[in-house]
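Action item from last week, closing it out:
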Amino acid sequence: MNARRILLLEEPSWGGVHTMTRTLADALSAQDWQVTALPWQQTQWPTLVSAAKQHDVIVATHNFGPTYCGAALKAITGKPLVSWVHGPLMDVLHEASTSAVKKLWLRLLYKQVSQFVCVSRTTQDSLLSFITLGKQQRCTVVPNGIAPLPEGQIIHVHAGHGGEGMPPLLLGYVGRLSTEKRPHLLLDTLRHLPDEAQLGIVGEGPMHRKMIHDGMDLMYQGRVHFLGKHPSGASLYTPWQMTLLTSRYEGCPMTALESLACGVPCVSLPIPAMRELYDLDAPYLLARGDAPVSLAEAVMTTLSLPEQQVRDDIARIVARHHIDGFVGNWQEVLRAC
């Protein structure tokens, strides 16, 4: 079997990266790999060094902080370093207004990485437009996998009646309320939908207050409900007929994959990662443009299609992201280190 001892340098947080870190650790452990996950910021440096010496491969679960720590541990121990790249690097650096000095430092740092694992071709293309791989470096695409979701905490959906006696159209959003996710577009999308459309927003973040202010009219009408932060689980998606994704960029978004795995279509703006995910099987889940009205039109188009067609299309996407393929690909990467 050739299982190896893996040290995961993790960055505990709520969201897709944390979900996939747990998924990888659990999946490898189930295959009898020895996996130690340590929060790199909260662990004493001598403990990190000792752990690195006792393991065969260091896996940085994100290409920023954990990879910085991993590069230092590699310099001390000589152990191979794998950097897991989630988002499209060029977009992330642009969003953060990263300086030329920081970019130069990153290029030098990334020379210490033995193997990059990107969650999508979109992410890989962005990384390789930023760096040139050295002779001893490799870069592989391993799409995120979907592990069985726990039921999770029940969400109380405040679904009143729809307009003119129509049943409500329940839409959901699951994610951080931050600028790169562009959650403010959700409110305008809702304004382009029929009166019976209601939106439940699961998540918190720096744009929370502004969204409450800007969506006051919709809240008064009972069409928008801020539901706070909830643990990951099927309950985040099953109350809705459809979920919405408005991000400026993504790598391989777990919100979309988890929604589909629950049988709930996820309609998105046409960013590259979502075109990669949907173009082959369900292009109607992509808006035709970046405007909220386009997202609203995609919602109505999806609703007009036969339910069985939508279920079948979603099932093919979910099958391509089965957990078995995910962990199998990761095992190949780690054995080669």
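Closing note: Residues 5-145+322-336 form a domain with the Rossmann fold fold (CATH 3.40.50.2000).
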